Amino acid sequence: MEANETQNQSGEPQEAKPVSKAKGKKAKTGNDELKLRLVLNAPEGHPFPQFLNEIKQRGVKSFDPGEFILKTLAEFPDEWWEEKIEGLTPLEFKINKALSDPDMREKLTMLLASEKLEDRGDSPLHS
Prior knowledge:
This protein has helices at 47-57, 65-74, 78-88, 91-100, 102-120, and strands at residues 5-7, 13-15, 22-26, 34-38. By secondary structure, it is α+β, with helices and mostly antiparallel strands.
């Protein structure tokens, strides 16, 4: 069976449906670990399913895909994660965060006021 296929109740392979949900919850062991259940659907020809198939063919018994993925993700630098978070953050969140800070709210108010003056064609009050 290919990495992007599942079996139905009759045992016949069927195409796996894309799933974008990742459920997280605290582990019940008392540790500060986060338990994730993740379904990955990789396109045909992607290196990860090929890697998993090769591991299976070679009879590797003690391979933990979760541990492998965590170690792989740990290789990304902190800056990459920060840039990714910034890139994915919606504008609404950034505006609400700025409005919750009194200094930023004042700057934003001044910026909007200056934009309003420019739109009307008025000159600024100072020279």
